């Protein structure tokens, strides 16, 4: 969790992306104010755009998965299932793995 805040005002280096986990996101969500929990989403979204612009398909796919997870299970804004679905689709488009495919099926069931 500390490492996430190290990069809060800049992009997470590509070699550190896979250190960010669902558990870390859950701990962040539980420890932050409402505004800060929204800022985590924007930080992740910026990371996705950065990695995509650098041609890092695997890393950007993982961030899309994490965004989808964050929206679906933690932040749960209006239409979270639809938003999470779109990011899950982006993850699969960039890196078709069983993890992302299984996740998409979970999102399809709704929250």
Tell me what the structure shows.
By secondary structure, the protein is an all-alpha fold. The protein has six helices and no strands. The chain has helices spanning 2-6, 22-31, 34-53, 57-75, 80-94, 98-108. Helix 2 (22-31) packs across helix 4 and helix 3 runs antiparallel to helix 4. It is globular. The mean pLDDT is 92.
In short:
The chain is mostly helical.
* Main β-sheet description: none
Q: Uncertain segments of ≥5 residues (pLDDT<50)? A: none
Q: What structural class do helix, strand and pairing data support? A: mainly alpha
Say how many strands there are: 0
Please state the overall shape, judged from the principal axes of the Cα atoms. globular
Backbone CA Rg: 13 Å
Order of helices and strands: HHHHHH
How many helices?
6
User: For the terminal residues, how far apart are their CA atoms?
Assistant: 26 Å
Specify the helix fraction band: over 70%
Determine the mean pLDDT. Answer: 92
Strand content: under 5%
Throw out a few tags for this protein.
111 residues, 6 helices, mainly alpha, single chain
